[in-house]
Amino acid sequence: MTAGAMEVPQVMNVMGRQTMSLNGAWNYIVDVQEEGYYDYRMNPYDWGFFRNAKPQKPEDLIEYDFDKAETMQVPGDWNTQDERLFFYEGTVWLKRSFDFHPQEGRRTLLYFGAVNYDAHVYVNGKKAGHHVGGFTPFNFDVTELLKDGENFVIVKVDNKRHAEDVPTQIFDWWNYGGITRDVKLVSVSSTYVESYQLRLGASKNEVKFSAKLNKAEAGQKIGLRIPELKINEELTTDNDGTACITLKAKPQLWSPENPKLYQVDIVQGEEDLKDEIGFRTIETRGKQILLNGKPIFLKGISIHEEKANGGGRCNSTEDAHTLLSWAKELGCNFVRLAHYPHNEYAVREAERMGILVWSEIPCYWTIAWTNPQTYTNAERQLTDMITRDQNRANVIIWSIANETPHSAPRDEFLSKLAKRARELDDSRLISMAMEVTSASNYHNKLQDNMNTYVDVVSFNQYIGWYRDVNDAPRMTWEIPYDKPVIVSEFGGGAKYGLHGEKNQRWTEEFQENLYKENTAMLDKIEGLAGTTPWILKDFRSPRRVLTGIQDYYNMKGLFSDKGEKKKAFYVLRDWYASK
Ligand code: GCU
Question: pLDDT tens across 176-205, in order?
């Protein structure tokens, strides 16, 4: 990292700040052997592609030229923009030139919504910083690296998989590589509001606001304005640069039926940070989940962050609206955003549409539990997920893992994460997708040491698909924990338009029957507070190679990738209508 540039804590709500978008066409160079980063002795060298060097004299040897290279759209993955890169996992360099005029007294942060997976970031040939993790935001203060006039940003993106990564080497979704979410230059004053929290206080007749500056500066004035609630308060920061206040107020409560959001202004110096925030309570009581004090059944569906019609990673309100509208057609009031934090547009669009959210970090399958860097990485992703979405009323569950094999190192790793999540946000429910993979004599019992660390016990089960076909009607369930239960996955595959007997795999009739049997079985599970069947739409996976049926798609969608409804869609819709 060059002197002058530094990673700074995630700046919250970039959508409400003064920004300059760097989205658009970026030149790219595919660098399979990382020629642009390592010399032929595999040592990182100082004259890599990040220099964006140009021949100065006729005899100069520069063996790359971004400006002659092809372009791809950012935000976007490379797999669906260049067919040569459909299966590609490796390094791609991306470059964007732009004009910039520094403003007196302002700092400039270079913000990425997400880059999958490993990003080395350079501004005007100098290192701004490095980030790993493909689904959470990060930003660098690059004020000193920018100049008046033409500037350029270069990012070395590498999506190769490694055992110590999060997620680890194998996962059942497409490893879309690239700068997959927005890139922005965020203009802030030297002292700015880094993060804030606004929610109901101890009772529904008060709201609690707290804000944190980027510096431990006392005496700074922060204004809170919520016109509809006739709130117009001024707070003063303490020695840590934080301020908080609890105010009498009786806001309408956010709920799926009434997704009420309030216009909020947070004013500090010349900054006026705008946001839309809803107020609600979420808690458990025994085996019930209570939203605003009333028991709720979570009619959910699992979703991957993938556009329909083979379009790659979602990264806009429109992309989200399409998928969330399909969920609404199912009668859903809840979605499980699997298995990683989805983009902020999706979470905010769900909030406007009255859809509750389960948000998850990709501690998926066989994580390297004993590797300290792996834990640091996972905790960083958890922290960044919670920091970004902590003011979203519709986000009710933080999930720390999916289908992880039982072991003492796993329990230690995940219990630390669960505690950290509670420290960061004690106002939401903690869960994880456990699993029940077998029954003895048709009796299924959930057993997981992590039950003590979560508020909601959730598990995946695939009766009718990976096991016990047609035995769902005979199954009994035992979940020996006095906590609400969510069946976070069940389902089976079908190819849209393929018809046949209900015992014929891959037909719509097979999937339809599986849903009939599973929903009837779920009705018998004591304490069932919700479910998120696997999955809304067929999605790409390198693990699904059955020619003519899967063709690199996981076919467990209730919708095809083109949005065609399979017969099972109607089974779930009608079941939810009955709830
Ligand atoms: C698992 C896993 C999913 C996967 C699904 C399947 O439960 O959590 O990521 O796609 O099963 O096998 O289809």
Answer: 999 999 999 999 999 999 999 999 999 889
What's the CA gap between 95 and 73, in Å, rounded? 11
The residue type of 201 is: G
How far is ligand 1, taken at its centre, from the CA of residue 251, in Å? 40
Residue with structure tokens 């979410």? 181
Residues 6+ apart with CB under 8 A from 575: 515, 519
327: tokens are 């969920």
Cis check: omega of the bond before 75, within 30 degrees of 0? yes
Q: Is the pLDDT of residue 4 over 70?
A: no
Ligand 1 pocket, residue 489 CB under 6 Å: yes
Atom in ligand 1 nearest the alpha carbon of residue 338: 9
Q: Is 118 in the pocket of ligand 1 (CB under 6 A)?
A: no
Q: For the beta carbon of residue 228, count every other beta carbon within 10 angstroms.
A: 13
Q: Is pTM beyond 0.90 here?
A: yes
**What are φ and ψ of residue 241, in 5° steps?**
80, 20
Query: Cβ(545)–Cβ(552) under 8 Å?
Result: yes
Candidate of 403, 488, 532, 543 to mutate for ligand 1, largest count of ligand atoms within 8 Å of Cβ: 403
Q: Which pair of tokens denotes residue 129?
A: 């910083």
d(CA 556, CA 177): 23
